[in-house]
Amino acid sequence: MGKNIAIFASGSGSNAENIICHFKNDPSIKVVLVVSDQPQAYVLERCKVLEVDSVVFPKEKWPNPYLIISQLKEYQVDFIILAGFLRRIPKELIETYPHRIINIHPALLPKFGGKGMYGLHVHQAVLEACEPQTGITIHYINEHYDEGAPIFQATCPVIEGDTPETLAQRVHQLEHDYFPQVIERLINQSL
After folding, report:
1. pLDDT of 191
2. Tens digits of pLDDT across the chain (191 residues)
3. How many degrees, rounded to 5, is the angle at CA 83 between CA 52 and CA 10?
4. Burial (CB count within 10 angstroms: exposed 0-12, middle 13-18, buried 19+), residue 101
5. What is the rounded CA–CA span in Å between residue 19 and residue 180?
6. Which of 23, 84, 90, 159 is exposed most, by the fewest CB atoms within 10 A?
7. Which of 105, 121, 144, 176 is catalytic?
8. Sign of the dihedral defined by the CA atoms of residues 23, 187, 77, 28, in that order
9. Residues 6+ apart with CB under 8 A from 73
10. What is the pTM for the complete model shown?
11. So what's the pLDDT on residue 156?
12. Which residues contact 176 (CB under 8 A, 6 or more apart)?
């Protein structure tokens, strides 16, 4: 029996699109739903083009996670992938999907993680710390920001003259190269 994925995204959705396209013709893994907390997120437009259902749960709905859980059950979701999702995941959702909620972080955790560490904030912190390298961390989530068990890391160098934007481009390429493959490997191990 196949596995169904829901992707949670708050912004543009390039990682979500990459994951959807990766599994488009997969016989055993399917992206069935995209969940956003932002009604104007561009990821919702990508979903229309890619013909993937989407739903918005704005911030006022997050205090009642059972609405979200009910929607996920309706779509028979097996795994949740956080792809640029900035809202904290409620404990009830983590308990419903233990070791089945996967996040990607644009740095080498445990460094440069935690509340407020997303997007260019992370890359700026890496540059200010004069790190020789940075990268991505794919990890399970728990009740604390960026503290779940690591699954995979990939690195890239920090180059002299880098700006947060140039560093973000290299890190984003790592995300696109590895995130779908790691998701596929994890889900296939559960089949």
Report:
1. 67
2. 799 999 999 999 999 999 999 999 999 999 999 999 999 999 999 999 999 999 999 988 887 899 999 999 999 999 999 999 988 899 999 999 999 999 999 999 999 998 889 889 999 999 999 999 999 999 999 988 889 999 999 999 999 999 999 999 999 999 999 999 999 999 998 86
3. 80
4. buried
5. 5
6. 159
7. 105
8. positive
9. none
10. 0.95
11. 97
12. 14, 15, 18
Report the CATH superfamily, name and number, of domain 3-190: Formyl transferase, N-terminal domain (3.40.50.170)
Separation of alpha carbons 122 and 105, rounded Å:
9
Tokens of 54: 């989407």
Torsion of CA 107, 113, 175, 28, to 10 degrees: 140
Taking 3-state DSSP, the helix, strand and coil percentages for the chain, each rounded to the nearest 5, stand at 40, 20, 40
Structure tokens at 152: 């995979």
DSSP of 136-148: EEEEE--SSTT-S
Residue type, 121: H
Query: Which residue type is seen at 15?
Result: N
105 labelled catalytic:
yes
Domain boundary assignment for the chain: 3-190
Q: Amino acid letter at 151?
A: I
